[in-house]
Design brief:
The chain has 322 residues and is mostly beta strands. 1% of the residues lie in helices and 50% in strands. It contains one helix and 31 strands. Strand 5 (48-52) and strand 6 (58-62) form a beta hairpin. The longest helix is centred in the C-terminal third of the chain and has 4 residues, at 318-321.
Amino acid sequence: SPDSKIAVLPHEEGGLQAIDMSNGRELQRFPNTGEDHPSLIFSGDGRRIAYMNPDGRLEVINSRTSRKIAEVSIPNNTTDLVMDMTGSRLAAISRNKVELLNSTTGDRSVAALMHDLDVTTAAFDNSAIQLITATMSGDIRIWDVLTGREVAKWTTPVRLASSIQFNPEGNLVLLGNERGRNAIIDIRTGELMAEPSKGWSMSEDWKLIAIPDDRKSLSIMELGATESTRAIQVDKPSATSFSSNSDRLVTADHLGHLQVWNLDSDTPSAISIGQHPDKITDVFFTNDDQRVVAVSRSGARLWSAKGLNQIERIKLDDHQLT
C-alpha cells in the first residue's frame, strides 16, 4: 500500500492475500479471477482496496477492516484502473477512452475522456481535482475531473508510459516506462525538467535529483535550478538513493562499492560502508537513515550507514530479487 502498512502477496493456494505489516496477520484473501481485468489497486492514502471479485464486478473494501464498501460495474473492456487519494473516484481505462466513476455507486460523473491513441496509464493528482493521462505516443493530457474538460496537452519523450507520479505540490509529474525511460514534466507549462538515466534517484520532497553524467561522475542538482549543480566522482554508478531528509546520498558503482556522501557542504565528502561481490542493482536507506539496504544478484545485505560494518545478510530468492 502507499503508506507501507499493508503488503499484497501471492497466496500459496492461488490468488492474493493482504498482510498487516505490523504483525504479519492476514487481513483479506483475494481469489484469482484471471488476467482479463486488473486484479487489485489501492487508494492513494492506502485506506481502500478495489479488486475484481469472482463475479466479475469491482468490489471496494476498507483495507484496515476488510469491510465491504461497495460493489460496482466497470466497462467490460477495461484494461487498467486507477483510484484517487481517498478512494472516492475511479478511472477506468479502455483503449483510447477513460471513464470516471464514483467508487461507491459506480455512476459516471462526466462523459468519457476520449484520446487519439490508446491510453497506457493515468493518475489523479493529490487533490483529486485533475486526472493526467498518457498515450502510446508520449503525449500527456490534464483533465478537470469535475467537468471532464481537457485543461492541457503536452508532448513528452516517454512513449508507452506505464507509471505517473505527482510531486507533493502537484505541479510536477514523473513519467516512466518499462524500458527504463523517465522524464519529469512541469504540467503547468509542459517544460521537460529532467530526463533521468539509469542509476538516478530523487529526494522524497522532489527538491534534489542525482543523475549519472558519464562513466565517472554523478550530478546532484536542485530540480529546476541547474546552476546549483554539484558533481561527485563515482565510477559507473549503478544505483543511488537519498536519505529521508536529503542530507546524505548513498551510491553504488559497477564493482559493488558502497559510499555514503554528506551533502551538507558545497563540496560533498564520502565514506565507504562496504562492498558486494557483484554489481548492485538497488540501494536505499532504512526508515531511520541509520542503515542501508543494498541488493545484487548475490543477495541483499544490510549495512551501517556510518562505516564499514555489514549488519546482516538478507536471504531473498531470485523472484524477490527480480
